Amino acid sequence: MNSSPRMEKKHLAIFASGGGTNCENIIRYFANSPLAEVSIVVCNKPDAGVLERARRLNVPTEVITKELLNNPDYMLPLLSRYDTDMVVLAGFLPIVPDFLIDSFPRRIINLHPALLPRYGGKGMWGHHVHEAVKASGDTETGMTVHYVTPVCDGGQIIAQFRTAISPDDTVDDIAEKEHQLEMEHFPSVIKQLLSDF
Length: 197
Description:
By secondary structure, the protein is of the alpha/beta class. It has helices spanning 21-29, 49-56, 66-69, 72-81, 98-103, 127-136, 171-195, and strands spanning 10-16, 36-43, 61-63, 86-89, 108-112, 140-147, 157-164. The protein is built from seven helices and seven strands; from the N terminus they run E-H-E-H-E-H-H-E-H-E-H-E-E-H.
């Protein structure tokens, strides 16, 4: 009887710009997983909190400028060096260049803090999104995980999770409710995608 071949562990690159709560959550989620591990955290801000979180968890970090991000001769060897199978955007603000999207077809995913296609597009990130949700009078908000394409927030939706909001909720309340969804669901969505590779 043939034994099935041992599954090769997948390698994630997380791109982030901010405090890094989602990044840390993902690193911890896959810390003892036979399926995958976070191999590198890429950040465009040298003072971002995500860098300290990654270092504390012994994950290599790389700080990049806009010029480096848009340089295929820098980014592709960098991701290759860490055997990157999937790129996860977790609060990464710069636009991902087309050459990366072409090099990782349906292997770059983004988390958006609203229920796309509403409240997406250029300038719609972080508090801007939650302010727009509040101003709209919507009775729910949520998170969307989608594939990254050259159209900002326009890629195919992979998963959405919803939470009720009330007229009494402040923008910060809405942000916190949505963030709880991210912490609960984002790692398992990544796991499911990797399982399907």
